[in-house]
Amino acid sequence: MHPQKTKTKPSDAPERALRNALGLPPTAAVAGIDEAGRGAWAGPVYAAAAILPPDIDKDLTLALDDSKKLSPAQRKDLAKALHQQAWVSVASASLEEIARHNILGATLLAMERAVSSLSPRPDAALVDGTNKPRDLPCHAQTLVRGDSLSFSVAAAGILAKVARDNEMERLDKLHPAYGFARHRGYGTVAHRKSLQRHGVCPIHRKTFRPIAHLVAGASNSTK
After folding, report:
1. Which of 134, 165, 177, 221 is spaced 20 to 30 Å from 196 by Cα?
2. Rounded to 5°, angle at Cα 66 from 148 and 130
3. How far is Cα 128 from Cα 32, in angstroms, rounded to an integer?
4. What is the rounded distance in angstroms from the CA atom of residue 199 to the CA atom of residue 213?
5. What backbone phi and psi angles, to 5 degrees, belong to 147?
């Protein structure tokens, strides 16, 4: 028999380990940082930063998880509670910034903006993934699969996801032919079909390869 894989759930262990590694007191504020929309073909990229206070509702922290494992209703409820009980900040980078800096650069820029607007200022930060912004006001450590391991990173991921989903629902009303409220701009089969039928619209990321190919093809067909 093969041993069963245990499901990873976030905890405060990464925050405690970072404080210990840096010689910070147990009360030091550690921010979790995560993004939403980096892989999408349309719309801005979002990032959030979250510091969970010591007196936060324990049931809330135990409900935190990788945003992809939660339903839209669960994410919205958790985001609302986090805005009420935690120190949080959400920011974005525009389509123009994605084109100018590439998607990684724009994502890191959104992260920097989220942290710069966070109050109180964090003493340290955990950043989901393998890349971290250079211009943060504190020491930062990357954490692969951080949204499955860390309470604060999971919180940031939920906040960024809900904020971006809300924006994509707003953009869906401006460009209803593409179904942005359903697929959020990601490269689903339905999105591909709508692109083949209608071409690109102003919120598509024209520097992304699938979109760039469509733009090039449309340009060639008019010559």
Report:
1. 165
2. 60
3. 8
4. 11
5. -70, -10
Q: Where are the domains of the chain?
A: 13-174
How far is 161 from 145, CA to CA, in rounded Å? Answer: 16
Assess contact for 156 and 117: CB atoms under 8 A. Answer: no
What CATH architecture is 13-174? 2-Layer Sandwich (3.30)
Q: And the tokens for 64?
A: 């935190």
Q: Counting Cβ atoms within 10 Å, is residue 12 exposed (0-12), middle (13-18) or buried (19+)?
A: middle
Count other Cβ atoms within 10 Å, centred on residue 220: 8
- The amino acid that residue 6 corresponds to is T
pLDDT band per the 50, 70, 90 thresholds, residue 2: very low
Beta-carbon-side half-sphere exposure of residue 95 (alpha carbons within 13 Å): 15
User: How many whole angstroms separate alpha carbon 28 and alpha carbon 53?
Assistant: 10
The structure's pTM equals 0.93
Distance from the first to the final alpha carbon of the chain: 63
Q: What is the dihedral of CA 67, 73, 74, 77, to 10 degrees?
A: 110
Q: pLDDT, tens digit, for every residue of 50-81?
A: 999 999 999 999 999 999 999 999 999 999 99
The strands making up 45-51's β-sheet, listed across from edge to edge, are 87-93, 45-51, 30-36, 124-128, 139-143
Quote the tokens at residue 107: 């994502």
